[in-house]
Amino acid sequence: MQNILITGGSGLIGKRITALLEAKGKTVAWLSRSQQSQKSFLWDVEKGKIDPEALEWADAVIHLAGAGVADKKWTDERKKLILESRTKSTQLLHQAIEQATMKPDTFISASAIGYYGFDTGTNLMEESSPAGHDFLADVVIQWEAEVKKIESLHLRTVMLRIGIVLDKEGGALGEMLKPPVAAPLGKGDQWMSWIHIEDLANMFVFALEKTTLQGIFNAVSPNPATNYRLTHEAARAKGKPFIGIGVPGFVLNLILGEMSQMVTGGNRVSSQKIQKAGFDFEFPILIPALKDIFNG
């Protein structure tokens, strides 16, 4: 029986991964600031504290922890939290793994397609494509650098650069369909590299179980869509009115500030590397993915 330790386990993705792993007979525990109904070990990233038993217990770690990027307006304080919740949590895990006498053999970390920059136009971004030069790209660069330090401890390390996660319970779809009438953002021609939450959770399990897998992989569906199309199809799948006139960029900037660049820009990202490694998508096409989410 394999013991899997998950950070950020109580989030949407973490809960889904937990359910999949437990269905496969694996024992799952969460690293948490408080005791959970789920088996858990305590840690406190701000205080730099972690239960040393956690890493002695774990055969593998799935690292999902990090403050939500789109949850609140980007004040200087919020930006600091977005960065440090990722870098400091990874540093704490590195320290605990280094000190453990029985170390996990696998470390799988979330990352983000924000690495490529806010707006890469129509270019197809691959894992080897250059990093962007904005706030989110800088966050991902620093985050991945900390994960690479864990790799140097001779653990098999996988990083999944996650795109826009489609799920009924929240995330991007919840925000897009919150207004009474759905509408594209900005011009609407910006690319959105999306992934169904089920495929994302399955990809983490795939990365765990395929012991030859190592390195960085884009966690996006094979068929990105424009903001216009994604919004239109999501509204249709939910039975919500759609208006084809985009919310102007200056309005989004007034409401969201710097964060507006994240929604008016876009990325067209390739999933070819993970597919070549043997991963099969259950929902590679947008309309069936949305139908499953809203009617499944």
Explained architecture:
The chain is an alpha/beta fold and 296 residues long. The protein has one domain: Rossmann fold (3-Layer(aba) Sandwich), CATH 3.40.50. 40% of the residues lie in helices and 19% in strands. The strands form four sheets. It has an eight-stranded mixed sheet with strand order 4-3-2-1-5-6-8-12, sandwiched between helices. It has a two-stranded parallel ribbon with strand order 7-14. Helix 7 packs parallel to helix 11. The longest helix has 24 residues. InterPro entries: DUF1731 (IPR013549), Epimerase_deHydtase (IPR001509), NAD(P)-bd_dom_sf (IPR036291), SDR39U1 (IPR010099). Belongs to the NAD(P)-dependent epimerase/dehydratase family. SDR39U1 subfamily. This is TIGR01777 family oxidoreductase.
Large-scale geometry: globular
Main beta sheet, described? 8 strands, mixed
Order of SSEs, N→C? EHEEEHEHEEHEEHEEHEEHHHEHH
CATH-level-2 architecture: 3-Layer(aba) Sandwich
Summarize model confidence as the mean pLDDT.
93
User: Under CATH, the topology is which?
Assistant: Rossmann fold
- CATH class call: Alpha Beta
Number of domains: 1
Strand order of the largest sheet: 4-3-2-1-5-6-8-12
The Rg value, from CA coordinates, equals 19 Å
Helix-residue proportion: 25-40%
Number of strands: 14
Q: How far apart lie the N and C ends?
A: 32 Å
CATH superfamily: NAD(P)-binding Rossmann-like Domain
List unreliable stretches of 5+ residues. none
Protein name: TIGR01777 family oxidoreductase
Organism: Algoriphagus pacificus
InterPro entries: DUF1731 (IPR013549), Epimerase_deHydtase (IPR001509), NAD(P)-bd_dom_sf (IPR036291), SDR39U1 (IPR010099)
Pfam family, one: DUF1731
